[in-house]
Amino acid sequence: MKESPEMVMIDALLLAGQRLADALRAENEALVSLDMPRAAGLASAKLQASDAFAAAYAAATRTGSKAAGPARQSAEEMAARLQRLGEENRALLERAIGIQAKVIETIATAALPKSNSPGYSALGRPGAARQPPPLAMATKA
Predict the structure, then answer these.
(1) Which pLDDT belongs to residue 105?
(2) In the chain, N or C terminus with fewer CB closer than 10 Å?
């Protein structure tokens, strides 16, 4: 028996939702362990999964597809799972950004001279103001 076009759309939406949940879960795991390079590497997979989910949702909405029976329960569970993973992802990203800001502040503070007062030269004249040492940073988000 052939599936109805409506069920095909719902199945595609559920599959796209599972792909997005997997991407969020992977990024959340990296963020929990503060593995920033791995988390950054997973960002494109999350974006692709998010775009695919949005497209599947738009297609299901455009065609008026509604989940019924067991598919409805699966859709409700998927929505709850995505909500929970999305909230966790937001909190973990905010935590990671805060930690990175503290690290940058610590490095910047350590790079500045201990005193901005120029002091005096060996001849007793006011000395030149000390310049902070050059500092270069590379970040990858």
Answers:
(1) 86
(2) N
Do 7 and 43 contact (CB within 8 A), yes or no?
Answer: no
Q: Exposure pattern of 117-126 as b/e (b: 16+ CB <10 Å)?
A: eeeeeeeeee
Full-model pTM: 0.73
d(C-alpha 35, C-alpha 139), whole Å: 14
User: Of the given ranges (6-20, 40-54, 84-98, 116-130), which has the lowest mean pLDDT?
Assistant: 116-130
The secondary structure of 55-117 as a DSSP string is HHHHHHHHTT----THHHHHHHHHHHHHHHHHHHHHHHHHHHHHHHHHHHHHHHHHHS-S---
Residue whose pair of structure tokens reads 């409506």 in the numeric block: 6
List the beta bridge partners of residue 126.
Answer: 120
Secondary structure of 110-129 as H, E, C letters: HHCCCCCCCCECCCCCECCC
The stretch 82-106 carries a mean pLDDT of 93
Cα 115 to Cα 32: distance, rounded to the nearest angstrom = 38
- Identify the residue with better confidence: 79 or 2: 79
